[in-house]
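The following record pairs a protein chain with its ligand, iron/sulfur cluster.
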Amino acid sequence: MFMKQPARMTESLCLACGLCCNGALFADVILRGASERALFEDIGCVLRTQGGGKRLPQPCPAWIQSRCQIYDRRPLYCREFDCQLLLDCRNGQMTSKRALSLIRRAARQLGAVERCFQQLNDRSTHLCLRLRFQRLRTRLARRHLSPAESLIFSRLGLRIHQLNLLLSKYFLPSSPPHESPRKTNILTAHPSVT
Ligand code: SF4
């Protein structure tokens, strides 16, 4: 009974969130070993090579309908990761209610970001937030923007910046849990929108 409560809290928060799987918080997942690579190569996923290893680009193809579809077989990296929000709830520094409220705020902000992308005819939902923004910026730089498009693009930059502030403050762990952390969207998206 004592052990079930943290597990239930983790499940309800993670199912409501998904930010560490959907490309908002991270750009990729480090894969370790052939079996982890095979999990994704077998479903036709193109892995990224970095530092002699393989990484799974986010959004993760296993994140479907707000659930990890391979939860029992998910990569070690996913098993080891706990966001700051979860850590704060576990050690009693934050209530679940407050955490859920922050998750909903992040979801609303992410929705506002998505609407700006769509208004600029960007449907690249297969890319993480950082890459998506960078590619859109490159594409738009090649042509003259109407005043309305310029306004939406400025708004997009502002929305991403606001989202990043929220994610940095509450979701991204203050100390990296691993020697070679996943690329975050947080640190790299900031310069691209200023
Ligand atoms: S494998 Fe599962 S836990 Fe890991 S990033 Fe993909 S959806 Fe998330």
